[in-house]
């Protein structure tokens, strides 16, 4: 069985008695993406039922991974507006 939710998809192989975590795939329902003006820039977005999130546009460790994401505020499924410049070191 497969269950689609706002946070992702969960799977049951035993007719619903137990379910996988939704952290088994990189999914998000993100609204109104915005970037800041630093380098590397940060991408910010509000998520359906999961608050807002941000991620660096590039890393020094080869690829962007879950450890590069961070909360960007309490907003959800709305617009974000930045107060430039916001250096990443202050977040």
Largest sheet: 4 strands, antiparallel
Proportion of residues in helical segments: under 10%
Rounded radius of gyration (Å): 16 Å
Beta-strand segment tally: 6
- State the shape: elongated
* Residues in β-strands, percent: 25-35%
- Secondary-structure element series: EEEEEE
Average predicted local confidence, pLDDT? 81
Strand order of the largest sheet: 3-4-5-6
| Terminal-residue CA separation | 40 Å
Structural class: mainly beta
Number of contiguous helices: 0
Description:
The protein has strands at residues 2-5, 8-11, 30-35, 42-47, 51-56, 69-71. It has 91 residues and is mainly beta. The protein has a four-stranded antiparallel beta sheet with strand order 3-4-5-6, with no helix packed on it. Strands 1-2 form a two-stranded antiparallel sheet. The chain is elongated and about 50 Å long. The mean pLDDT is 81.
In short:
The chain has 91 residues and is mostly beta strands.
Q: What key phrases describe this protein's structure?
A:
two-stranded antiparallel sheet; mainly beta; 6 strands; 91 residues
